[in-house]
Known about the structure:
The protein is mostly beta strands. 0% of the residues lie in helices and 37% in strands. It is elongated.
Amino acid sequence: MIAMPPTAKAADTFKVAEGTKVGQSLGWFMIESGSDMNRVFSVQTTFPPQWNGAKLVTADKGNWSTQRFNLIYAGNEAGVDYFRLKVYHSGYYLHRSGDYAEHRVIHQWNDRFNLNAYWALEPDGAGYYHLKNRNSNEYMEASGQKDNRVWLSNKRTDDAAQKWRFISTSKSDNERRSLDDGWYTIESRSNSNCVLDISGGGMNNGDNLITWERHGGDNQIFFVEYHNGCYGRYTIKARHSNNYLHKSGSDDGLNIHQWSGVCDNAQWCLEPIGDGYY
């Protein structure tokens, strides 16, 4: 199970002090949903993290690097203060997507001067904010859809799905881990009697990863190890062979097998989804 971060104070009002310069930070924050205080903004994980178009969603609060945002002053226009939201794990900014349909997505992008990256924070008087895009005057809203994406609505409502609370956090180089290092069997949620297994107990590069009935053999036991220098990814090593779980190439739909050595294809992000599953 994941330990929750310590309780942090919410920012009730962001006041831009006289003399604040464009580009100045007001701090690092998690941004909590008014619909569910246990869910916060999170940018979908990609590798490398510098990936234009990675979508903004809500996820269980964990203070991961994908859930920490730097609030940066972007200037005043017609009496309205605007801000940019910079994602810690990538250094990119939250942008309104370029299409023009209702409920367009919000994603990260590397252009900090595009007006799609500018947001006004409109307080609701109870510690929450409505986030309005400068380019379109649309409001961020928790979609309530299965994929948990945050989308844009063309009008402001009093619905909790449009309300967001800023929880002060820190920019730390020590990312919160999804799982402690150690030896694990890795169980399938679709069938709790089946676990990850190196087929036939094979010892060679290229031997397949499968699911098989749990029997406790060394080919079903894996060492999961966190690597801070790899954007918070893990390696997963089979006990019987000391080989690592690898994606077998660079295209979609490819196999997972064991292979000696560690490269990008052997690095995995563990995204908690609750109840001890990832």
